[in-house]
Design brief:
Length: about 90
């Protein structure tokens, strides 16, 4: 029984260490590209929260204008980095 356990332990460790080493960072792409998409997501997050505020305060036009401006910045960021614009700016 000990021989079987030892054999399985050695076999599994050989299989484990023979696998190719994965990159330590997530995203898999170049560093500049992953940074750019995260930068664009910053605008998306800001626009989402501004949109919530604009929908909660329908009578205050300032909030709607701010949300629309942030959506425009998000779409411009996507366009500048070569991605298609994914979101139409909502009407508040």
């Amino acid at each position: 029984m000990k021989l079987f356990t030892l054999t399985m332990l050695i076999g599994s460790s050989v299989l484990l260490f023979s696998q190719p080493v994965q990159a330590s960072h997530s995203g898999g792409g170049g560093g500049a590209q992953s940074y750019a998409i995260e930068y664009c997501r910053y605008y998306k997050t800001k626009a989402s929260f501004a949109g919530r505020k604009a929908r909660a305060n329908r009578g205050v036009r300032k909030y709607g204008r701010r949300a629309n401006a942030l959506w425009a910045k998000y779409n411009a960021c996507l366009k500048d980095n070569g991605w298609p614009t994914q979101y139409r700016a909502p009407v508040y």
